[in-house]
């Protein structure tokens, strides 16, 4: 990574956000009409962009293994669907997940850095990242210190992201902004710029534990930040909306937005992901509807 990328960003390059304009533009993505073939293609693409996730206190070895099986073969009777991009688990389940998906091409992501609060000393947060990577994580989903950000300690945020990126080694780093706590689109834009400049491979909206989580307008602000960063540096950064994306119709609207803002280069799971625990089954139901002309009951799909 070049020194230019790792330089603290100039806030003058982080434009003020027109709230009305952003929300109006985001709303227009909800009005797009897709032909049947395009819709089916989009649904299948969305499955391959899933970070299939379980982040609950009741997570068990068996539950994680079942989730991994579903990520590898979302529709067991149709191997052309999927696989998902990754499974996302807590640190202590990384080794279980890594063994379960070994050889499948499905990545293992782990939340780290005292997810979801981020309220832990940086020393322990970095140690948690190193633990996850040593256990077999391909990707780390970190949370920024929102309290520090909201207090204006922006260089501290830059430094923590840079140190977390260094701790990742070869693993990719997704930086969670927790946009529901940042209050304004301007704050979301500035947090995005800081995170990318500090080395983030992806920027991510939310932990899924705070409401509101991902929204189309917030994601649009982050996509525009990615576009501007790419134009300045030539470095592509991925995007991951997470939380609240529970149906296929909304997922397709996100894909339309990515295509129109960033272009075809970002329309793959190397550069775009959905953080979802409940989206998978609706995508599968809609794929079956497009292929057969009728809905199948949710009982035909596993709940993992």
Automatic annotation (TrEMBL):
InterPro entries named in the record: Aldolase_TIM (IPR013785), DeoC (IPR011343), DeoC/FbaB/LacD_aldolase (IPR002915)
GO cellular component: cytoplasm
Protein name in the entry: Deoxyribose-phosphate aldolase
Pathway the protein contributes to: Carbohydrate degradation; 2-deoxy-D-ribose 1-phosphate degradation; D-glyceraldehyde 3-phosphate and acetaldehyde from 2-deoxy-alpha-D-ribose 1-phosphate: step 2/2
Family: Belongs to the DeoC/FbaB aldolase family. DeoC type 2 subfamily.
Catalytic activity, as annotated: 2-deoxy-D-ribose 5-phosphate = D-glyceraldehyde 3-phosphate + acetaldehyde
GO molecular function per UniProt: deoxyribose-phosphate aldolase activity
EC number of the protein: 4.1.2.4
Naturally occurring in which organism (per UniProt): Roseibacillus persicicus
Name of the gene this protein is made from: deoC
CDD domains: DeoC
């Amino acid at each position: 990574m070049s020194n230019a990328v790792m330089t603290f960003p100039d806030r003058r390059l982080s434009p003020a956000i027109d709230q009305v304009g952003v929300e109006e533009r985001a709303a227009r993505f909800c009005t797009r009409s897709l032909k049947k073939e395009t819709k089916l293609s989009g649904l299948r693409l969305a499955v391959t962009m899933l970070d299939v996730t379980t982040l609950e206190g009741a997570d068990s070895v068996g539950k994680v293994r079942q989730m991994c099986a579903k990520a590898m073969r979302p529709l067991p009777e149709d191997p052309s669907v999927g696989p998902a991009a990754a499974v996302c688990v807590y640190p202590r389940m990384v080794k279980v997940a890594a063994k379960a998906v070994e050889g499948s091409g499905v990545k293992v992501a782990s939340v780290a850095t005292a997810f979801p609060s981020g309220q832990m000393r940086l020393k322990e947060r970095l140690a948690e990242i190193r633990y996850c990577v040593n256990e077999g994580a391909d990707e780390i989903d970190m949370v920024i210190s929102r309290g520090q950000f909201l207090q204006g300690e922006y260089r501290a945020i830059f430094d923590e992201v840079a140190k977390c990126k260094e701790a990742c080694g070869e693993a990719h780093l997704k930086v969670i902004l927790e946009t529901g706590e940042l209050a304004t689109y301007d704050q979301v834009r500035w947090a995005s710029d800081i995170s990318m400049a500090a080395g983030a491979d992806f920027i991510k909206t939310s932990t899924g534990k705070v409401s509101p989580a991902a929204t189309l307008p917030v994601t649009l602000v982050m996509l525009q930040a990615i576009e501007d960063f790419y134009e300045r540096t030539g470095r592509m950064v991925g995007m991951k909306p997470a939380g609240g994306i529970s149906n296929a119709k909304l997922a397709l609207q996100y894909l339309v937005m990515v295509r129109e803002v960033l272009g075809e280069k970002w329309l793959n799971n190397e550069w775009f992901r959905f953080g979802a625990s409940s989206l998978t089954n609706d995508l599968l139901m809609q794929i079956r509807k497009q292929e057969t002309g009728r809905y199948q009951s949710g009982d035909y799909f596993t709940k993992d």
